[in-house]
Structure formats: C-alpha cells, structure tokens
Design goal:
88 residues; mainly alpha; 3 helices
C-alpha cells in the first residue's frame, strides 16, 4: 500500500515541476489538470483501501467538477485571446 502511494506521489511531482518550469499558460493549465486528475485518483484508491465510500464520493466530485471548471477557464482564456486579436 505504501509503495503504491509513494509511486503516485512521485508521479504527481512531474506536472508540478512542469508547471513551475514553463511560462506558457496552456502548459500550466495542462499540468494543473494532470495534478487534479492524479489527486482524485489517489483519493479513490485510498477510499478503496480504507473501505470508506464517503471519501470515494469526494474523489469522484473532484474528478468531475474540478476538470470541468478547468476546461471552462481554458475556454474563457481562449475567448479573451481571440477578442484581443480582433477575431470573434
């Protein structure tokens, strides 16, 4: 159990490093989406190991709503860039 969680934490550090290193907004958003997905998967695995379905519900909510909010933010930023360039 501990080895799996440690491996997941190490995999979580890769997009954090990428977001810290790059200045491109889209790369940062992709890195944050990856972090949100990996964190929610970790929560789901912990809920399975602990046999606690309430923690699993929280993981599912984070997985579905968190990425939807990130995609909405990406769409807003894209529209703002299109408007600033003059294309509607």
């Amino acid at each position: 159990m501990n080895i799996v969680l440690m491996a997941m934490l190490l995999a979580l550090l890769i997009p954090i490093y990428e977001a810290w290193q790059d200045d491109d907004v889209w790369q940062k958003m992709l890195a944050f989406a990856s972090i949100a997905t990996k964190t929610s998967i970790m929560i789901l695995i912990i809920s399975i190991l602990r046999d606690d379905w309430m923690i699993g519900v929280v993981g599912v909510i984070i997985l579905s709503v968190g990425n939807a909010a990130l995609m909405l933010l990406a769409h807003v930023i894209k529209r703002l860039n299109d408007v600033s360039r003059g294309a509607l």
